[in-house]
Write a structure and sequence with these properties.
Helices cover 38% and strands 26% of the residues. The protein is α+β, with helices and mostly antiparallel strands.
Length: 258
Amino acid sequence: MCNLTSYFKNIIKLFYSFVTISNLCIIDNEYKTKNMKNLFTYFIILLCVSSHISIAQQVDRYANGYFFHNNALPSKTVITYNDIEGSPYLYKEFSDAIIYSIDTQAVKLPLRYNIYTNEMEYQLDGNTYTIGNPSIINKIMLGEHVFVYLKFIGKGGYFELLETGKCFLVQKRAIKYNPPEAPKAVVGSTIPPKFTKETDVYYTILNDSTPVKVENMKSLLNTLSDQKTSLENFIEKEKIKNVKRENLIQIIKYYNSL
């Protein structure tokens, strides 16, 4: 695929040449009559070719979206949650995401992450689909988040990739559905159904080994036992007290630097 940047650079160079020759033509009228028309014609042709390439790239990205759609084994059945309090999504609204699949080029599509169903939903031609074949996914970049599909942790699912290196750190989000409850004597009315956020779960994956769930600081240090002393000193120095997200990222980043 042609590089638009190089074409635009050529346009700029030609434009400056056009201006320079225009100035010379003021001095040399004969040069003007023989060369100006040809130069202007070349300039217009180059603009047209560049516009054609830009359109071709847009069509190619559009075609890639359909190619991905066909490989994703999409399901058009997307549940709506209008009568349920809360949201099952990371972000309720669709956002432009870049989807890197194994067999195709990167595709940019509106997407949102349904944490409750553990599915990625995307839009194409005004319809909403779910990715029915997540095994084709290499990674998904949704805003500042990077997601990977790991089928070897639990029942499989989408995990946010927090750190990479000799030790990978991934995060699994969870949302629970609470069904409606019948009226109680004290309350006197039906409690509507709602979604509630559950505690996120973190896993370390060391040297392509089996993923290990981070239970607490002790379990983390046991997993990273080859650098246990250095990590203990680092944790004490940074006054890290728990295994919250930001602390885990800090610890694993330091471990990968050793």
